[in-house]
Design goal:
heterodimer, A: mainly alpha, B: mainly alpha, Helix Hairpins, 3 helices, about 85% helix, flat, PhaG_MnhG_YufB (chain A), transmembrane helix (chain A), Na+/H+ antiporter subunit G (chain A), transmembrane (chain A), membrane (chain A)
Chain lengths: ~120, ~90
């Protein structure tokens, strides 16, 4: 096993593991559903992509069996995670979950719930 | 070095699964529980890929693909039920 390939695979693997942990910490600690939705759907996608890339490099460089199954998993999750997040946020709007109080432009929530376009912004003098 | 990195990454993913389980049991709304289940599916895929790297066998990727597809389909079904009160209208 070459040293440079081992360092490369180890760094990519640790990046993926820390990304998954960061996404789950955000899911556990953020105060609101709309903010909690942001943490897993982005960070865990990057973590899965990194771990799949590390696995593919490990199988291709160290065991000489290069397969392309791991990028299929990464690509599938890259396509389906935004769809899941969009449908979850739509159902949260439909169930009228209240956002945290510091959220800006809360009038847009009701307009989005009624499926209306946002009002044209008036220039403030 | 690679083996210890795999152990550390597995420990990270196990801690992430515990945090997701806490959110699934505590979560005040239904959407929180569905989101926690979806994240647990993703962490299980990562654990299976790590197991395949550790065992040096390519047998576990089919299981990871199955978990990915079933997790997406089940999350979409539950979300359609929450939106419409029915899965297929």
């Amino acid at each position: 096993m070459n040293t440079t390939t081992e360092i490369l695979i180890t760094s990519i693997l640790l990046l993926g593991g820390t990304m998954l942990l960061i996404g789950s910490i955000g899911l556990a600690r953020l105060p609101d559903f709309y903010t909690r939705l942001h943490a897993p759907t982005k960070a865990t996608t990057l973590g899965i992509g990194s771990i799949a890339l590390a696995s593919m490099l490990d199988f291709g460089l160290n065991l000489d069996t290069l397969t392309f199954k791991e990028p299929v998993i990464a690509l599938f999750l890259l396509i389906t995670a935004p769809v899941t997040a969009h449908m979850l946020s739509k159902s949260a709007l439909h169930h009228q979950l209240n956002p945290v109080r510091r959220t800006q432009n809360q009038a847009l929530l009701e307009r989005a719930r009624a499926q209306e376009p946002p009002e044209p912004s008036t220039p403030q003098d | 070095m690679l083996e210890s990195a795999m152990l550390l990454c597995g420990a990270f993913i196990g801690l992430a699964l515990l945090l997701n389980l806490w959110r699934l049991l505590k979560g005040p709304t239904l959407q929180d529980r569905v989101l926690a289940l979806d994240t647990m599916y993703i962490n299980a895929i990562a654990l299976l890929l790590l197991l395949g790297m550790h065992m040096e066998s390519p047998l576990y990727f089919e299981g990871a693909l199955l978990i990915a597809m079933l997790g997406f389909i089940s999350t979409v079904a539950v979300t359609k039920y929450l939106l419409r009160g029915d899965i297929i209208e």
